[in-house]
S-crystallin SL11
Amino acid sequence: MPAYKLMYFDTKGRAEVIRLAFAAAGQSFEDKRFPLSMEEWQAVKPTIPQKQLPCLQVDGRLIPQSGAIMRYVAREFGLYGDNNDENTRVDVIIGTAEDFLKNAFALRYEKDETKRAELKKDLEENKLPQFFSLLEEILKENNGGDGFFVGKKISLADIMIYDITDQVGAAAKLPAFPPKLGGLIDRVKNHPKIKEYLAKRGD
């Protein structure tokens, strides 16, 4: 079995969905977190592909790009669906999530307080309800919405949507979840291995 080392900063950010995927798989990994002071990271940066984090080390091989890493981990541990149709369904949900995340990132990086307030209001009143409604419809296409986004078991799609609601919820007021989506979020949180990880994470 390879040794896995995930390198990122000491925050959730783009690495948390990868940490959650490792947790769901029951796979141990070294969770290397560089202090946000950046000094240690600046010393290591020249040795990292594309000079950015997150980066996953698999034995001696380094994999950059958060999207590539999360898909690698999902494929490696059976979190990417059982056939091409299911793989594609996971990709559709990831793409839908990434479209939405552009709005969340715009809020995170906006420095002007007036513009930030406008973006936050639009996120809470328009973008989040639209996103949740879209996810509800996608979820209902599989087992009436009473299971997971893909097939009959948890996948990267479920983990990513849970992580987005968790992280965005720390920065903005979430609207009420539609019923099926709310049920899914609870199932992900209560997945035994994820529940154990979240208890250790402590928030």
